[in-house]
Amino acid sequence: MRMQKAKGKRQKFFLFNVIGRIVGFPLITFAFLLFASPLFSQNITATAELDSNSILIGKQAKIKLKVEYKTDQGNIKIDFPKIADTIIKQIEVVGKSKVEKIIPDSSNMSRLAQTQTIIITSFDSGYYAIPPFKFIINGDSNKPIETAPLLLAVHTVAVDTTIAIKDIKPPIDVPFNWKEYLPYIYMGIGALAVLAGIIYLIIYYLRKRKKKPVPEIIIPKIPAHITALERLEKLKEEKLWQQGKLKEYHSELSDIIRQYIEHRFYIHAMEQVTDEIMYSFRTTDVSDELKMKLRNILFLSDLVKFAKELPLPNENEMSWNNAFEFVMVTKKDEVKIETSQPVKTETITEEKPQ
Fold first, then answer.
1. How does pLDDT run across 8-44, given as a tens digit for each residue?
2. 235 in Cβ contact with 252 (< 8 Å)
3. Mean pLDDT value of segment 130-146
4. Cβ 47 vs Cβ 147: under 8 Å
5. Is the model's pLDDT at 174 over the cut of 90?
6. Which segments of the chain does DSSP mark as H helices, in order?
7. How far is Cα 96 from Cα 120, in angstroms, rounded to an integer?
8. Rounded to an integer, what distance in angstroms lies between the CA atom of residue 295 and that of residue 194?
9. H or E element in which residue 340 lies
10. What is the C-alpha separation between 20 and 42, in angstroms, rounded?
11. Domains and their CATH numbers in the chain
12. CB atoms within 10 A of CB 119
């Protein structure tokens, strides 16, 4: 009986021991984490310091953020607060540095720190409270670490109204120093040298380049009688009077003779009437018979143009024949022009008959 009771007690002790181990380990672990969490957070400190608690309006101040912790806590991830353009409405952020890791105390290598510098300014005078900065440890946003709030005083420049207003100081005269102007002098001399070189090269090139002599083309004047005869032949081929175009026929015939007279006898026949032309021929070496034929050509042309005369076919042919004969008899051979050497192009005029 005693042996059975002892055996039963040993079995109960073993059973309670196993149950205690199974149930007790999670409880111990939970209790450790529960009490270690505040202990862990107590080993991490966050501070914010102003390099100056008082600034003039528009001046700048620096806020140094620092988070310090032990190295034996493993790999700790610290998220610094997101800094916008302003901390509060009256305090503006001018700039900020990157987060850096440092060893705050060289005698204690077991502690590390992460720091960041924020540059601030303000354009409104007054006293402003800077709220605490929050740091997230290992992504746990429910338990952030905060710094203590800061106080910043922004003052304006004191103005003493009892003192009279002073004039603005005039510009200070700086003594002349040649050394300051030497670079500009050298640059000017260099620019003039380059310009002189360019001008010299242009002049040298223009002098070196010789223009090839271009022979001038001589266009000899066509003799007056050749032009007149060609126009008479063309007028004959057109057969204007045969088509009933009497006015056009006699007008063209009159123009041919008048232009021939101008170039051959230098009489302004295009501007004169028939009587004036005939009067101008009194001093020319032309037979009376030719003068009479010339008068008949011009007089018949005037009748057709102005009096609407209708000449007979033989009269039309007679006018053309008289014009042809007048040109052939009074034509003058032109002086031949030597073109072996280049000469200037000019119009060669005929000499007036003596």
1. 544 544 444 444 444 444 443 334 344 444 444 458 8
2. yes
3. 92
4. yes
5. no
6. 2-42, 178-208, 224-238, 246-265, 274-280, 288-307, 313-330
7. 9
8. 79
9. none
10. 32
11. 45-155 (2.60.40.740), 224-330 (no CATH)
12. 15
